[in-house]
Amino acid sequence: MAPGSEAIEAVEALVRRGSPEGAHLADPTTCAGDDDDDNPRMSQKGSDILDACKWRDVPRLRALAESEGGFLNDGFRRAAWPILLGLPPLEAAATSPGDVGDWQDLPRHRDEDQVELDVNRSFVYYPNGQSEAQLEQCKSELSSLIVEVLRRHPYLCYFQGYHDICQVFMLVLEPPWRAKVVARLSILRIRDFMLPSLGPTTSQLRLLPDLLGKADPKLRQHVATIEPFYALAGTLTMYAHNIEAYHEIARLFDVFLAREPVFTIYVFAQIVMDRRDEILEIDEPDMLQVVLAKVPRNMDLDVLIANSVRLFDRYPPESLRPWKSISGASVLKTARDVGVCARQTLEDGHAYFQQQVKDIRWADMQDRIKMAVWRYRRPARAFGIAIAVAALAFYLRRSPTLVHYMMSFFSK
């Protein structure tokens, strides 16, 4: 069945508003990104993007996002990004039941003070050519975007760097779309970073050393003493904290939204391998940590993306040993298929969030039990204690009411 004519017209209107020929219609006092396509004619690829958006063809959009230039400019991104994140057609999104009521009347979120601190440090590198008044307007809009999402979904925990991600969405999308798109991104695609624990984030980073070990054993051995936290800023913020050029970060977001969340790990692994010679020359651990954490400027993003795709195809995540320890409720597993994830609801995401919290508590309790057994171990009873711990863990797994009691006991 063909898409409705109203939906087609709406997609075309979005593209026109973001294309160079429609730029003169924009309000100069509003925040807008820097479109990177100066050709006033719509290319064949532009026609392909528009057609894929009309049909909401996620696999086709993924292929276009991975190809040279990604979605070309912000006009096409305004049409494609909401589709990749599962937003309903334009006319339906305007009446989404999750947005009933004025968010400003909702209770204040516990992290709003930190939001304001971070927002005040935003818009350092882009947009370009803005007056002081325009930058203040941008900051006000960014603050409103973040606070609206947090107030509507108060179980989410803000993390430093979240504002870097939201900044890009704010510059690309029109105001009616921003909170809807960012909410789905937060709950269904980067949920692991918005939990009340860093455990799931650390679990993601543990994939990196194993991936390097498979792809380049010598390089992996050279950095073996360095914990993978050097990749935290990049993967946590979808590289929005590292990339200083607007058109480059928007280009990266094209492919990140079109692929599964774990792809950011593969991109970082590829960045490290591309700097192989430089890294192998450094032996001092502190200097190595600094160098590994840097994302080079002026990278050829199309080449980087193509190489990262090949790396992913050669060593898929299920081939990595730490993959088994990733929670089944992690976005790395619940959003593996972008098309399936696009059909998930915010309620589905909330349920996954709650399951991850339970998994975190369960893992924490196991660690406490192990520490207690180690503290009070007796060599002659080691085997018996090991069996007792296994039996206790098995029983507690089926008796969640005892979890809090046991955790408080072992914390004494």
TrEMBL record:
Q: Which UniProt keywords apply?
A: GTPase activation, Membrane, Transmembrane, Transmembrane helix
Q: Which SUPFAM superfamilies match?
A: Ypt/Rab-GAP domain of gyp1p
Its transmembrane ranges are 380-397
Chain residue ranges for the region called Disordered: 16-46
- Locate the Rab-GAP TBC domain: which residues? 71-260
* The keyword Transmembrane helix appears for this protein: yes
Alphabetical list of PROSITE patterns matching this protein = TBC_RABGAP
GO cellular component terms, alphabetically, are: endoplasmic reticulum membrane
Tagged with keyword rRNA-binding: no
For this UniProt entry, the molecular function terms from Gene Ontology, in alphabetical order, are: GTPase activator activity
What Pfam families does its record include?
A: RabGAP-TBC
Q: Give the UniProt record's GO annotations in the biological process aspect.
A: endoplasmic reticulum to Golgi vesicle-mediated transport
Per its UniProt record, what PANTHER family does this chain match?
RE60063P, TBC1 DOMAIN FAMILY MEMBER 20/GTPASE
Query: What protein name is recorded for this chain?
Result: GTPase-activating protein gyp8
Source species, please?
A: Purpureocillium takamizusanense
Gene name, Swiss-Prot/TrEMBL: GYP8
